[in-house]
Amino acid sequence: MMASLLRFRKLCYVEPAISKCSFQSVDKVIKKHDNQSCIPPPPPPPPPLLKITNDGDKRKVLRRRRDPKEWRCLDWCCWMIGYICTTWWLLLVLYNALPGFEVPESPGVKLKKEGLNALHPVVLIPGIVTGGLELWEGKPCADGLFRKRLWGGSFTEIFKRPLCWLEHMSLDNETGLDPPGIRVRAVPGLVAADYFASWYFVWAVLIENLAKIGYEGKNMHMAAYDWRLSFQNTEVRDQALSRLKSKIELMYVTNGYKKVVVVPHSMGVLYFLHFLKWVEAPSPMGGGAGPGWCAKHIKSVMNIGPAFLGVPKAASGLFSGEAKDVAFARAMAPGVLDSELLGLQTLEHVMRVSRTWDSLMSLIPKGGETIWGNMDWSPEEEYDCDPTKTKYVQSALSESSQSTNETDGKLGFKVKDPVRYGRIISFGKTTSQVQSSNLPSFDPKEISRGRHQHKSNSSCGDVWTEYDEMSRESIRGVADNKAYTAKTLIDLLHFVAPKMMRRSDAHFSYGIADNLDDPKYSHYKYWSNPLETKLPDAPNMEIYCLYGTGIPTERSYVYRTSPTDRCKSIPFRIDSSVGGSGDGCLRNGVYFVDGDESVPVISAGFMCAKGWRGKNRFNPSGIPTYIREYKHKTPAFFEGRGLESGAHVDIMGNVALIEDVMRVAAGATGMEIGGDKIYSDILRMSERINLRV
C-alpha cells in the first residue's frame, strides 16, 4: 500500500497536467497511513501554448526548454581524444582479426626458426641524449632526488622545479666537468637506454629480439656513459673507457673467446671511434693495450645512424639554440617562444645549458669545405626535394640503366639554380642564393675589435649567455649580408662563444689531416674525427654504416637578427618566415637534403662509401666496409612508429636493420647478409668530394 501511495505522489508531482485529484484528499490518505503532514505542492503549470499581446495579435510560444550547454574547448578536446582512441582501437581489432592483417612475425622469432643462436657477445653504445642520468649529489633544491632520474623516464622534475633541474643538468663552463656540489651520473645497465621515456623505445626492441635467440646479461651489455661530457673526460671523471675495455675483454673470455660485435648509435659511433684509438694508444693518455687489441677482440662495428662527419643542426643549436622544430614552432605560433609576458626565456636557458655539454661540439661538421661544400658548390647540389620530380627521375634512370648494388636509382635532379647547401648559415634568403662574388667575407679579426665595446646592460634579465659580452656593432658585423661555410662556421663560433670553443679546441678537431703520421695526431683531440685518425690494424674486423634515407634532413639555414632589443637574449634566429618556391627544399628557413631526419646522407655514408673503402691512408689495413641503407616507409596510423622506419631513432625498430644486426651477431659476414644495399645518391656524392684517400 505504501509503495502505491508513493507512486501516486510521484505521478502527481511529475505530471501536473493530469493531476486533477484533490491535493487535500491525497493528504488525507497519506496521513491515514503514514501520519505524514503533506506533500509539497506541485510545480507551477507550464506556460500556455498561446500568448495574447497588447495589440491582440496571437503568436506561438514554445514550451520552455533548457538551453543546451555550450561546448568549451576542453569538451571538444575530450571528444576528439575519445574519437581518436575509439577509432584506433577498432582499427587495431581489425588489424589483428581480419585475414591478411596478421601481426608480422618478429625478426627474433623468424631467425630462431631458421636455427640462429647467440654466438658473438654484443655491446650496445647509446648516442647523445638517449641515455638516462641520475642524481648522486645535489643542491638543497634537489632534496629527495637521490638516485632519481634527472634525464630519461618521466621528466616530472622539469615541471616541478625547472630552474633547479637546469642547474643540475649543466656542467662547469670552464672545466666541462661537475659543478661544485653536484654529481649527476649515467644510469647503468640495459635500462639506461632501452626506453627514453616509458612510451618511447630506443634499444628495447633490438634487445627483445636478441633475447629471442639466446642473448642475456652475460653476453649483451649496454655501455652507458655520461653523454654530456667530452669523450676523453668520460675517462678522466668516470673511467668509462677503461670499464668498456675491461667489459669487452671479460665478455670475450667468458663467451668462448668469441669476438665482440659492437653496435653504436648516433653520437655513440664517434665515442667508439675515439675508443678504438684510445684503447691501443700508450698510457696515460690511452688505454695502453697496444697494437692488435682491436683485431683480437672485435668482430664487427655496426654503426646505426652514424654522424661520422657531424650534423649541421649541431651548429645551429650552438649558434642560436634552434633547429627545424623551433623554426616550425615559430612559424605556427609567432611570438610565443619570444613572449616577455611570462619571462620564461626558454631558448636562452636551453643555450646556456647545452653550451656546457662538450659532447655537442663533437657533432660540429667536420672536413670543412672539402666535405660540406663552399659558397658555390656542395656534394648535394643535384639533389631535389620535390618528390614528384624525384620519382620521375628515378623511373627514367631505372629504365636506362641497371644498378649494381640494389640501388633504387639516383635521388638527384639537376635544377637550373642549384641550392647552395655549402652556405650552412646565411643571413637572408637572398644571401643564401646569390653568387659568392656579391657577398662580403667574414673577417673575425676586423669585427672583433669592437666585440667588448658598448656591452648590453648586464643588470637586466636572468639568463647569461656569451652574447651578453658582444657589442651591437659586433652583432651587426656578424649578420650584415654574410654567409658561412663549414670552414668559416668554426671561426664564427669562436667569435660568438669563445669560452665554449676553448673547451672545444682542447677536445675536438674538425679538419682533414695532410700527414696522418705527424706526431700531433697522437693527441686525443683528433681521435673522434675519422679524417684525422687511422683505423686500427685489424683486417678481419668489419665496419658497417647502417642508416635511413628518404626523409628531408636539415642541411643549411637562413638566419636573421632578432627583432627584440631585450638584453640577455639571443640576437640571431632562424628566419621561419622564409620558404621556397618550386623545388621545396627551403621550408621555414631551413634547407633540406636526403637523410634520416637528423643526419644527412653525406655524413652517415661517406666514410663507408669512400673514406674507408679499400686500403688507404685512413684505413691502412683495408678493413671491409659496408653500406646498408633502409628506405623510410611512413607507418600506417595503427603501426605506431613503424616496422620500416628510416628515422634516426625509430630505425631502432626497423625489422630489416634488426635482422641484419642479429645475423652478424650470430656469425654472418657482411657479404653473407648481402653486401651493400644503397637507395640514396651517396656514391655519386662521394665521388664529387675531392678528398685524397
UniProtKB/TrEMBL annotation:
> What is the official name of this protein in its record?
phospholipid:diacylglycerol acyltransferase
**UniProt keywords, alphabetically:** Acyltransferase, Membrane, Transferase, Transmembrane, Transmembrane helix
Q: Name the Enzyme Commission number(s) assigned to this protein.
A: 2.3.1.158
On whether Lyase is a keyword of this UniProt record, the answer is: no
Give positions of region: Disordered: 435-458
Q: What class of enzyme is it?
A: transferase
Q: Does the keyword Acyltransferase apply?
A: yes
Question: Which GO CC terms are listed, alphabetically?
Answer: membrane
**What family classification does the UniProt entry report for this protein?**
Belongs to the AB hydrolase superfamily. Lipase family.
> Subcellular location, in the record's words?
Membrane
Q: Where are the transmembrane segments?
A: 73-95
Instruction: Name the membrane topology term.
Output: Single-pass membrane protein
GO molecular-function annotation terms?
O-acyltransferase activity; phospholipid:diacylglycerol acyltransferase activity
Give the reaction(s) catalysed. Answer: a glycerophospholipid + a 1,2-diacyl-sn-glycerol = a monoacylglycerophospholipid + a triacyl-sn-glycerol
Gene Ontology biological process: triglyceride biosynthetic process
Pfam families (alphabetical): LCAT
